[in-house]
Here is the input.
Amino acid sequence: MSEVLVLIDHVGGEVKKPTYELLTLAARLGTPSAVFIGDPGQAAGAAEKVKAYGAEKVYAIDDAQIKGYLVAPKAEALQQLAAQVAPAAVLLPSSAENKEVAGRLAIKLESGLITDAVDIADGGVTTQSVFAGGFTATAKVTKGTPIITVKPNSAAPVESAAAGSVEQFAVTISDAAKTAQIVAAQPRKASGRPELTEAAIVVSGGRGTGGDFTAVEGLADALGAAVGASRAAVDSGWIPHTFQVGQTGKTVSPQLYVANGISGAIQHRAGMQTSKTIVAVNKDEEAPMFELVDFGVVGDLHTVLPALTEEINKRKG
Amino acid sequence: MNIVVCVKYVPDATGDRSFEADNTVDRVGVDGLLSELDEYAVEQALQLKEKRSDEEITVTALTIGPEKAVDAVRKALQMGADKAVHVQDEAIAGSDAIATSLVLAEAVKKANGGAVPEVVMCGLASTDASMSVVPAMLAERLGLPQVTQASVVETQGDQVRIKRDGDTATEVIGGTMPLVLSVTDQSGEARYPSFKGIMAAKKKPLETWSLADLGVEPAQVGLSVAWSQVEDTAPRPPRTAGEIVKDEDGSGAVALAGFLASKKFI
Here is the structure.
């Protein structure tokens, strides 16, 4: 069986959960091989992790000439690896940066590209959620090496022991690819909460919070959830843009989405409509969000959420 | 300096959107408009021109699409763009992002007399397909660096500095013109066309080009040669109506806790 390349999603060598989801999907198309672009000293540690999810090989690419130069060098590195391996497909976790890498790679490899897949079936047929979650589309790459970016939470990772043997792969990065660079970076402060796009539960707040996210955060912590927000809350300056769920923010697809004081404009729905279970708390019983919910409470979030948090903590004993 | 802003004519997201029998987006039978997210690109192009008022800067709005798509570049002209180009050719219908980026790349160069302009400006994503890949593909085809998802844009000479919310950090990205630049909705509210702007737009140059004008073969674009094919589209089944309760003296929280427990979330 041909290899399927899976780009490892990691921060400083620490492998993130979407990687395992992609390896699980990759096994449907061929033999998963993981690609580690990073500090060579961290490759072995990453290989230990991904071999539990079916990665037979781990290609280690030194990022000395890649780090700091954004997407163009990554696309060159993957192009060179793909030229040697001739993979059945290349899978990348859907992030703003990876989609750009995939876009450049598609042109380089003269290959079709599918972004934001939520499933990949045998034969490479992908499922995507389109038009703000209003439609489902199935698609297939028909030219070259399928390049597919996959959204987090698209598959349950399945453990499958494999060799995970590390192979160093040397790449040559052109000067042209290094013409845009990161001048400064301010890593986000760790909140101690799960990553918004990867979380199993997301608790969001909107205009109805009136700028006070205490109740939202309290509930999020009781549920072990990530905190999200609507554009209205972000535009009001109550919470940074990185928390925004919606068309121009993050797209989430958790097991449970709790929308508090969010009316449910189409732009917000675009970012959360594919959540498995949706719950809303809103004073306005006419809020469009209630059309989407499995369970809704018409009430003031500032009284309902603290009471709910207390109830949850009580049940947890 | 020349700035080419790439804009898209999209179905109105607040109206009914649908697909044709061949699974392409219905772009003719629906109300359309300049993609909201591309208005921010037009705005940033105009601001760049205004900030560097001592230079001669031409802002060209460029779109690809059916006859009605001309509305997208007209709006850009009304906002203040200097000229506009509409690439229209029946063979383009159904093109994927890859073919779109090919046509755009040729049109961007032609709009700038055959050379690459200093800045190719794009929005964050289209509001219909929303892949967010065309800026990267365009950069690849034009052999340019890309500086994307900017919330703040600053330039000095041929140097560009942007601020953005990266995937894991807030970043400052630097690049040298020529480059492809994309901006987000955080970059600043787009202006409304003034009455004066609307009147002035009628006299601004607006050219319509075909694929032949760009030297692109019809066989290189369109649905039949797309490198990926949509096999099926279906409306998402409506969610079954959920239970809605009114909170009275704390009953809401108890009911909600009961629901979450029944679903094993707590």
About this structure: Chain A is about 25% helix and 30% strand. The radius of gyration of chain A is 21 Å.
